Amino acid sequence: MKLSPVASFLxxxxxxxxxxxxxxxxxxxxxxxxxxxxxxxxxxVTDSTALLYRNHGEPSKVIQLETLDxxxxxxxxxxxxxLAAPINPSDLNMVQGTYxxxxxxxxxxxxxxxxxxxxxxDKVKTFKVGDWAIPRDAGLGxxxxxxVLKADDLVALPKDIPLLSAATLGxxxxxxxxxxxxxxxxxxxxxVIQNAANSGVGQAVIQIAAAKGIHTINVxxxxxxxxxxxxxxxxxxxxxxxxxxxxxxPEMKELFKSLPRPKLAMNGVGGKxxxxxxxxxxxxxxxxxxxxxxxxxxxxxxxxLIFKDVKIRGFWVTQWKKDHKHDEDSLRNMLDELCILIxxxxxxxxxxxxxxxRDFQKALENAMKPxxxxxxxxxx
Length: 380
Description:
Number of helices: 13
Oligomer: single chain
Structural class: alpha/beta
């Protein structure tokens, strides 16, 4: 039958690609072209451009840009288009082979990011085409343009938050939120102290604490742009911004005449920096270690244990998510609270530099530079 030009155009614009036959998530196939009869859209994506590594080592040396065939979309799977994915220190550690959990090789880099659902399996009830989602846990490999994933490995996000806020929501803000919620009963007027205050976690701590009326003492390393960085952190809501050297000076006693000593310290550095945080904790306060950028052990003064009875704890957001895997409300409620802060303008993404996947070498090099205050984010 000969079609009119209008009918031919409508058919062409409604052509999609989907799989037929077995619904296994594990078989790699090319999608077959079909025509839509209903008013919904499905992606025609058949492959993915990805940053892949086959061996552990320095990221700039072992990561390669490759094209991967997509898996069949199973009944409990979704096809997603990655929108944006950051480079976090843990991502680099994973590539280097030094992180606590390591995926099987070869692996796609990246653990965090935001994607859009392009197609859903027939048993998926939690997502529809067009929804935004982020990984529920680490290890999915987000540095790619598209992927077929189990729907249960994703959690939905509202689409009315900024792209970079969504892409950087799953790790650092969640870490900050949990540390401020789970270790001390903080109330408005209380004080917390943290090092690595310019990190992604540090910036989230400042903003979430400010929204709760909690004072923050924020410690950063001395650097050429110190005043500029200090002003930026104060604009986010930091109460005080100090250098590590300032913590050892007598002027600290004056500071504590205007606000109470911290109930909670958050340590992302280790070494002497962590020890100094401990010295300023109030009696029976808690120091939570979530990172060790100095790659030095945490040294606890005997006096802090005997005379102040401080508590030394650790926190890893990946473990928290595993522990609450079957407690859907805990993760959902946390993400909802964070999204409310974002929509209210009280929680913004860290300073980011947007890069394309093809510029990955430059992005990786910049991510590993010392004193960096901007996060590299792949935007697909």
